[in-house]
Design goal:
alpha+beta, ten-stranded antiparallel sheet, disordered C terminus
């Protein structure tokens, strides 16, 4: 797994401070992008939280996921959450160290009482002393929230900074893209009242070791959710229920639980999303299909990365984005002159750079700009890199619906079957397309579409 170190520079540590006039939560920001360009310490919001203790617990839940590994727990994770200002809300996002759980807290307009939220994306410092202070908030006394430097200090940040060096695996960046692609294919499967949501979630196991393997399923009933021994229509996969433990932070404040998942297909394990509705907020956890299987290997973005058209379309669509809380593909298609299908492919490609996410409650994409190297996840995607090498080396021979790919000492047959490319390689035998195309099928797609590949071949 490729790893690099990212330096996050904060003007000072984030802190919760008390005074005679009340408490103030200052969340410090690192370098990020805004409509004005790159900023060392962007400022997104200053005002009051409508439900301080609920917001504190939601933020702690996101930080819990950022610091957790739900698989191979001996390796500790550490990555500060990302915050995006979308004009009418603040979104706090994180990924687990094992890349199998994606968390997002949406603090909506009704949860904020202050000036209009600014636009942009950056990392936010959530340190251990701050976590301890947030956990001690037990009442809804007025709490002032500041995301970014104090207004008077914006122009005086030339002094020493607090620097964190964070190991950043490339698979985390791919995970953001894959989670967005998976979520876009989900439908609402169940909505539980607060009492039934609390009863169900509190009945789930809280493992202390690696989460249990194997797909488990639940299905909606008149009384909530019940386990089912097989994936009947409408069922939702619950892979590693221990991974929902972060939701325990906010259960007492829940007003509903919404459960999302894809259509059941062949009984195979699938990703799912669990959204706790809170006053003025939503906390969502999205689980990969298996505790040992991170989102980064799902392959849902590979088709969108395999053509030059997708790259050009993504560049065109990107200039039309403005940190919208909801992105309408039909509107982008009209403004860009592209088809809706090509706009969706472009959004998928932008997702590989962390530039869009997907909000299940709104059933819409949203704009953000992760403060990471936008091209690194694509460069280090092993199947994509291998496919480009095969295509560029002239290893692909086309014969109508059949193609032959020379790889190593073997030659693999790739055949089109009902719009899907099948292959004689072990990857296809193991996954049958459920984790995206193999490198041989991807190379065939590149050659057929005339994509520019390694060595300049077409």
């Amino acid at each position: 797994m490729t790893r690099s170190v990212q330096a996050l520079a904060y003007a000072r540590p984030s802190a919760l401070e008390s005074s005679q006039v009340g408490a103030s939560l200052g969340l410090e920001t690192a370098g990020g992008l805004t409509p004005r360009g790159a900023e060392a310490h962007p400022r997104f919001f200053a005002g009051f939280l409508s439900s301080p203790r609920i917001a504190a617990r939601g933020l702690l839940a996101v930080a819990d996921v950022a610091a957790a590994r739900y698989y191979q727990r001996t390796l500790r994770a550490s990555l500060d959450p990302v915050v995006t200002g979308n004009g009418d809300r603040l979104r706090f996002e994180s990924f687990s160290g094992c890349c199998g759980v994606y968390a997002r807290l949406d603090v909506l307009q009704e949860g904020l009482d202050g000036q209009r939220t600014e636009h942009g994306t950056t990392n936010v410092d959530v340190n251990n002393p701050l976590r301890e202070a947030l956990s001690r908030i037990t009442a809804d006394d007025p709490l002032h929230l500041r995301v970014g430097p104090e207004e008077l200090a914006v122009t005086t940040l030339d002094g020493p900074v607090v620097e964190k060096k964070v190991p950043l695996p490339d698979r985390w960046l791919r995970g953001f893209a894959e989670a967005q692609v998976a979520s876009a294919g989900f439908d609402l499967r169940a909505e539980l009242t607060a009492a039934r949501a609390v009863a169900f979630l509190r009945s789930l196991p809280r493992g202390t070791g690696n989460a249990a393997r194997g797909a488990q399923w639940v299905v909606a009933t008149g009384s909530g959710l019940r386990p089912t021994t097989r994936p009947v229509p409408g069922a939702v996969c619950l892979p590693g229920p221990e991974r929902l433990v972060a939701l325990q932070r906010v259960l007492r404040h829940a007003t509903a639980l919404r459960v999302y998942g894809p259509p059941v297909a062949d009984g195979a394990a699938a990703a799912s999303a669990w959204e706790v509705v809170l006053p003025g907020m939503r906390l969502t956890l999205t689980l990969s299909p298996d505790p040992s299987r991170g989102f980064s290997g799902e392959g849902g973005v590979l088709e969108a990365l395999a053509t030059d058209d997708a790259a050009a379309d993504a560049e065109l669509v990107s200039v039309l984005l403005a940190w919208e809380p909801t992105i309408e593909p039909a509107s982008l298609a009209e403004r860009s002159g592209l088809s809706v299908e090509r706009v969706r492919a472009a959004l998928t490609r932008l997702g590989t750079a962390g530039r869009v996410g997907y909000d299940l409650a709104d059933a819409a994409y949203f704009h953000r700009e992760l403060p990471y190297d936008a091209d690194r996840a694509e460069r280090h995607n092993p199947r994509l890199v291998a496919a480009r090498e095969l295509a560029g080396a002239g290893a692909v021979s086309l014969d109508g619906a059949l193609a032959s790919v020379a790889s190593g000492d073997r030659r693999y047959q790739v055949r089109e079957n009902g719009g899907t490319l099948t292959c004689t390689c072990q990857w296809w035998a193991d996954y049958r397309g459920k984790r995206g195309p193999c490198k041989h099928a991807l190379a065939v797609t590149m050659v057929r579409r005339g994509a520019t590949v390694a060595g300049g071949a077409r």
